[in-house]
Amino acid sequence: MSDSPSLDNPADHELLNDLPHPHAAPGHMYFHRMDDMTPDDFAVLQEVHETNLANLPNLLLGLLDSLGGDEAYPVDRKTHSLQAATRALRDGRDEEYVVVTLLHDVGEALGPINHGEVIAGILHPFISEGNYWMLKHHPVFQTHFYAANVGLDPDVRDEFRNSPYFDQTAEFCARYDEVSFDPDYDSEPIETFVPMVQRVLATSWQPPGKSAAAIGTEDSD
Ligand SMILES: [Fe+2]
Ligand SMILES: [Fe+2]
How many structural domains compose the chain? Predict the structure, then answer.
């Protein structure tokens, strides 16, 4: 039995925070302000972000799974997403495109007004600019297919005519998104796509902006 202060004991926290480095416990950061961060703290911070990155596929697939609870749509949005991704897969689209198609609506709960921006922002570090732009703008492009039926302008997407990604996004909506509410379509199961999601999202964490290493070598030539 030890008399050492413990992170498990709230009464010891102040004492532990006052300890000089090296840290008393592994896997914990000790700064009270970020300008007190040490290299040891930063190593732990990096581990935390690496863990978050490793968990991201399951987090997004969990959001996708939660779309299966819909009752108002003709088919629930999980079925819609699997159907759209299956159509893309059977069209021979590359793996990143299939994954983007699978996940294109998972931001709807978090962004009821801007779900395209939500998922585009989450996937931006992992995908091409074209797929990013397509995800971000697909909700506006979708309106083209139903707006006239409900008294709205079907051509609001035309404000983006000058984008190099206009045609790609229009095609995505026409071939995969707007048609994928068919209850009789035979989609692939989610298991088909899980390894694809894991591969597309596999990367290592980098701090935002220029890395400390890059700053250190900037003036060395
Ligand atoms: Fe959408
Ligand atoms: Fe959709």
Answer: 1
In a domain, residue 124? The reply is yes
Tell me the per-residue pLDDT of 110-127, one tens digit each, with 9 for 90 and over: 999 999 999 999 999 999
Q: How long is the chain?
A: 221
Q: How far is CA 191 from CA 33, 61, 86, 94, 188, in A?
A: 44, 10, 12, 17, 8
* Tokens standing for residue 71: 């009752």
| Protein residues near ligand 2, an ion, with CB under 5 A | 105, 177
Expressed in angstroms and rounded, the spacing between residue 107 Cα and the centre of ligand 1 is 8
* 81 in any annotated domain: yes
Cα–Cα distance for residue pair 99/201, rounded to 1 Å: 10
Q: Ligand 1 centre from 135 Cα, in Å?
A: 8
- Give tens-digit pLDDT for 181-211: 999 999 999 999 999 999 999 988 888 875 5
Nearest ligand, measured from the Cα of 135: 1
Has residue 79 been placed in a domain?
yes
Between 211 and 87, the higher pLDDT residue: 87
Q: Rounded to the nearest whole angstrom, what is the distance from the C-alpha of residue 110 to the centroid of ligand 2?
A: 15
Task: State percent of the chain over pLDDT 90.
Answer: 77
| 44 CA → ligand 1 middle, Å | 37
